[in-house]
Specification:
- The complex is a heterodimer of chains A (297) and B (370).
- Chain A contains 14 helices and no strands.
- Chain A is 72% helix and 0% strand.
- Chain A is an all-alpha fold.
- In chain A, α5 (87-117) runs parallel beside α8 (158-181), α8 packs antiparallel against α11 (212-228) and α11 (212-228) runs antiparallel to α14.
- Chain A has two domains: 12-66; 87-294, MetI-like fold (Orthogonal Bundle).
- Chain B is built from nine helices and 21 strands.
- Chain B has helices at residues 42-50, 92-102, 107-121, 136-148, 166-183, 194-200, 218-223, 228-233, 274-279, and strands spanning 4-13, 16-26, 31-35, 57-62, 65-66, 77-80, 154-158, 186-191, 203-208, 211-216, 240-249, 252-259, 262-268, 284-289, 294-296, 306-312, 315-318, 323-329, 332-338, 349-355, 360-363.
- Chain B is elongated and about 80 Å long.
- Classes of the chains: A mainly alpha (297), B alpha+beta (370).
- The A-B interface holds A 185, 187-188, 190-197, 201, 205-206, 209-210, 296-297 and B 50, 52, 71-73, 77-79, 81-90, 98-99, 102-103, 132, 146.
Amino acid sequence: MSRKNLSGIVQQKGTQHVVMRTLLFLTLGVFCLYYLIPLIVMIATSLKSLEEIRAGSLLSLPQKVTFDAWTKAWSSACVGVRCDGLQPFFWNSVAMVVPAVTISTILGALNGYALTKWRFPGADIIFALILFGAFIPFQVILLPMARTLGVLGLAGTIPGLILVHVIYGLAFTTLFFRNFFIGVSSGIIQAAQIDGAGFFGIFFRIVLPMSLPAIVVTVIWQFTQIWNDFLFGIAFTVGDSNPVTVALNNVVNTSTGVKEYNVDMAAAIIAALPTLAVYVIAGAYFVRGLSAGAVKG
Amino acid sequence: MSDIRLEKVTKNFGATEVIKGIDLAIDPGEFVVLVGPSGCGKSTLLNLIAGLETITGGDIYIGGKRVNDTPPRDRDIAMVFQSYALYPTKTVRNNITFGMVSRNIPKADQDAAVQEISTLLQIERLLSRKPGQLSGGQRQRVAMGRALVRKPDVFLFDEPLSNLDAKLRIEMRTEIKKLHQRLGKTIVYVTHDQIEAMTLASRIAVMDNGHIRQFADPATIYEDPVDLFVAGFMGSPPMNMIPGKIGAQDGQYVVSTSNPDEAPLDFPLPPALYERASAMDGRDVILGLRPEAIFAAGTELPGANRFIFERPVSVVEPTGPDTMILFHHAGLDVVARVRPEDSRPEGTLFSFEADMEKAKLFDAKTTLRI
């Protein structure tokens, strides 16, 4: 819509304009390259053989494309003493991130809905307290959380890690949904009340379908945070229950044998692919969601 | 059909008293319009009747049943909101059926009800669309359909027409009136538009600052306002309120009005007002004359108690059917309504005729009608 509106705007013409435009695009091009080079190097290196890496320069493109490094990273690289590649840890991450994102998003939506549409005394204070949770540094909660997980019998397990991420994520998800719902007309809730729907009826049948943009933003945010998390992963899981980020670290920082840069690069890309995919698939919604307040429903 | 009764109803938001003790008895099948300026509490009062706000004091009865503690869904009401409040992710059909789905009404009955309502409101073609694809007038119809479909006893309208353009507003106004005539249900309708109030209501409640100033049929509200507020609120352009003093002259009572720079004018009161005027002899009053009570001299059929005077025209405002002529008097712009052909340019000395039979007197201190 905005593209269509802009195309008709009268623009300046003349030599000066052309010079400025050229400069502008030149600058943009340089920045673009600056951001892309690390990715190019990673992909190129992961497709080279070890000999080629040793012989050639960092920036050169692969002479002979080979996927050996990818296969190794996925299924046979050594993580600690176990040599099954990243594969089992990748599925650990999936098994952790899916429930953690789903639960924290639903609870955040419920919180935001209750805090804006079913106002109760002290709602603002409770929101302020929840919001405060978004500013607590990760390190501060490590010890109390470890103790809590121990008491709950969840120490060192994936469910334990899910619990940590759900609790830590609630502050952000509540904030996202609260700010989305504050822009939703209360008349809609009142109309639904008169129509005979209750708290959960209105939430699931009216409010949740309306909040697709907020859901997408929250899911992307939570997915990226939880998938990329390293600290909680290394602190609250052990060995076989490690998420992929911790496993990646173990692959790269292995102290024995030759440094296999191609395998490291492939492993890093594998570990980063899911977040990349989520951005590509839902990215359009992300931008739309951030400006959701400005768009009429 | 249900009656609605409010007894000593009050509502506070924190320390602010918004509704300050309202008594109102609405008969079954009546069309009552709550009208007043922004912030007078009319929408809050409607929300109290709907059950969307909790009452602070007093009692509300719908159909003889006390509903203070009854949630909205059990009050047998339907409401049309100013913002329409349609469910944006649902189709028109599902918007209309949502209330029935919530109440587990069989699918066949739902379909029959949708069929009937969509025919009545002429929205059959729109049933599979989403609210975002509808125009303002269509959304308004769907919102009414959603309210009508459950066949409740009481309809509540919260400024339903204020988001529509002028032409559509007049069309929908007529449709709402027709609907009321056909269905005969009790309606409580909130608006700040006094013309909507006059055209729709069987009785109007004029509200100000949490109180009801007057509750009467439209003709009484217009012709017999209880105080300056009601008189000034109803009517467009508003009633001229000329400050003056009551005095006796040659066996007549007059309202003497003047301004330092202008010649004084003594408006003679009609004999019907003598008795009340005598009690106020020498006191400050406000003389209320509606614009249509002042016209070009000699252009109306002669009548008793006319007062002819001359003033220079200061502003001319043609509206089409009538032309408003403004002149300075007693420190204000007085509006007269004349026929377009009697209009004269600014600055011309103009001969006005006032129908003093229609004059109203208010106490300048208490603002009450004398």
